[in-house]
Amino acid sequence: MRGRKPALETLTDAAFELGGELPRCPPHLDAEAKREWRRIVPRLGTLGILSRLDTAALAAYCQCWSRWVEAETKLRETGLVVKTPQGFAQANPYLSIARQALADMRRFLSEFGLTPVSRHRLLRDAEEPDDYPILSETPDDADSQAA
Predict the structure, then answer these.
(1) Residues 84/47, Cβ–Cβ less than 8 Å
(2) CB–CB of 101/67 below 8 Å?
(3) φ, ψ (nearest 5 deg) of residue 3
């Protein structure tokens, strides 16, 4: 398109406000995903890191959680190895579903600071000062400027 890029007028400061109104659970989530939503959202809310814009990411995480729980339940029922119709043993298809759901969950957990490493990064970033010394400055230059 030619011309100036239109301004985003639909997003307000309230939409970005952290610690404000908690996102509402989307109705399309299944029962297990809704249980996870009710468990995790209040906890994230007390940390003050949520905004209403996080609804999609939270919903996706909760759905991954639900998929993982279902796949793990089926694995317990049917075992890690199943027989094909021809009688050959093969890895249970639920194993790959569980692995993928867990990998997706871990990515979302990291985004929300819910893994030990990501939580450490959030805490470290919060403690770092806003001003950084000039990188090109040598210790001798800093001493001569202070004098």
Answers:
(1) no
(2) yes
(3) 95, -175
